[in-house]
TrEMBL record:
UniProt subcellular location: Cell inner membrane; Cell membrane
This protein's name: Na(+)/H(+) antiporter NhaA
Lineage: Bacteria, Bacillati, Actinomycetota, Actinomycetes, Micrococcales
A Pfam match: Na_H_antiport_1
Name of the gene this protein is made from: nhaA
Family under the similarity heading: Belongs to the NhaA Na(+)/H(+) (TC 2.A.33) antiporter family.
Catalyzed chemical reaction(s): Na(+)(in) + 2 H(+)(out) = Na(+)(out) + 2 H(+)(in)
Keywords attached to this entry: Antiport, Cell membrane, Ion transport, Membrane, Sodium, Sodium transport, Transmembrane, Transmembrane helix, Transport
Gene source species: Agreia pratensis
Length: 393
């Protein structure tokens, strides 16, 4: 279990799952798996009737978003975002990392009718970005790690808001109200989770969570928002314990299953000139837009706040953070699915663009982070040598 908690291992498993999905989709087994993905599974006696693909993206992924929300709440309470002064600089960088990729995407798709896909390149896969940082960034100063962590967390908040606001169609206010009651009941039960009736309370919370998810799905709001709401509502200390239990499940099963399912795409047998505008918009916006947006936002944020409290972030460090931000994967794949629902060919091209754009970002980030780590390693060596010479004198 401890191995799958590793950021490096989680990132590797996610990448391998996506690669296998893409490869298998383009073998003779591909069409059969895609038909299975589209097969519907209904729960008898309920209005819930989803395809296998939607049970994965709407159901399993809600657990991932629950874990993300718990981490967000903890960071706001006692972590890297527990004060305005800590949050404002990465927030400005994160905002730049949303605006610039969105503008690049819109520039590529203007007049094509696919402008609504602008949220796709705005997301960052926090697990994957931190995995790349863990693999290549040994020895990088803690201030840069903290900045990147805060940046990725804030980026997740923006992604959640985008899903809630822009991918909700014809909301049913009655079901939304009932779901809100479910969230309130979940919070109330979580306050009693540490008592003598922990087991029955936990079971009851699980039932309430399932009902709340169902109501959210039926309300027209994307069902993953239920996971966010429940994660934010749960009392922090027991929520962190639940997160610890769920982390191996999300890293080792849920995210790889989603990555495999999302990457089940047949590579179009067309010339590059025949690919739809969203493909090029996403492909460029993820690596290029994120680097420009985050670097520019990070530079602007260096003028915010008292001079003595401003973090010293070099241009190289900001470029590395921007490249890490371009690793979209999980949330970008989800947004692609939502933006182009019912437009299968465009959605498939969008999936390929997310995978390619994220892969390019990984390569760029690996190079920049490795160079940065090597620089700080040399700097530490020089300092240690200077100290040794002083002691010898």
């Amino acid at each position: 279990m401890s191995v799958i908690r590793s950021e490096r291992v989680a990132a590797l498993v996610l990448l391998v799952a996506a690669a296998i999905g893409l490869i298998v989709a383009n073998t003779p087994a591909g069409p059969g798996l895609m038909r299975l993905q589209d097969a519907h599974l209904a729960i008898p006696g309920t209005p819930l009737d989803l395809s296998v693909g939607h049970w994965i993206s709407d159901g399993l992924l809600a657990i991932f978003f629950f874990v993300v929300a718990v981490e967000l709440k903890n960071e706001f309470a006692v972590g890297q975002l527990n004060s305005v002064s800590k949050a404002v600089r990465p927030a400005i960088a994160a905002l730049g990392g949303v605006i610039v990729p969105a503008l690049i995407y819109v520039a590529f798709t203007s007049g094509s009718g696919y402008e609504s896909g602008w949220p796709i390149p705005t997301a960052t896969d926090i697990a994957f970005a931190l995995g790349v940082l863990a693999v290549f960034g040994k020895g990088i100063p803690s201030r840069l790690r903290i900045f990147i962590l805060a940046l990725a967390i804030l980026d997740d908040i923006v992604a959640i808001l985008i899903i809630a606001v822009f991918f909700t169609a014809d909301p049913n206010l009655l079901f939304i109200g009932l779901a809100a009651v479910g969230v309130a009941l979940f919070w109330l039960l979580s306050r009693s989770l540490g008592g003598r009736y922990r087991m029955p309370v936990g079971i009851l919370m699980g039932i309430v969570a399932l009902v709340t998810w169902s109501l959210t799905y039926l309300s027209g709001v994307h069902a993953t928002i239920a996971g966010v709401a429940l994660g934010l509502a749960m009392v922090r200390v027991p929520a962190m314990r639940v997160r610890h239990v769920l982390e191996p499940v999300t890293n080792g099963a849920i995210l790889p299953i989603f990555a495999f399912s999302a990457a089940l795409v047949a590579i179009p047998q067309v010339a590059p000139s025949e690919l739809a505008a969203p493909f090029w918009g996403i492909l460029v916006a993820l690596p290029v837009g994120k680097i420009i947006g985050i670097s520019l936002g990070g530079w602007l944020s260096s003028f915010v706040g008292p001079r003595e409290k401003r973090p010293h972030l070099t241009l190289h460090g900001l470029l590395a953070a921007g490249a890490l931000g371009g690793v979209g994967f999980t949330v970008s794949l989800l947004m692609n699915e939502l933006a182009f629902a019912g437009q299968e060919e465009v959605a498939d091209e969008g999936t390929l663009a997310v995978l390619l754009g994220s892969s390019i970002s990984i390569v760029i980030a690996a190079v920049l982070v490795s160079m940065l780590a090597a620089y700080y390693k040399r700097l530490r060596t020089l300092r240690e040598n200077a100290v040794d010479k002083l002691r010898a004198a």
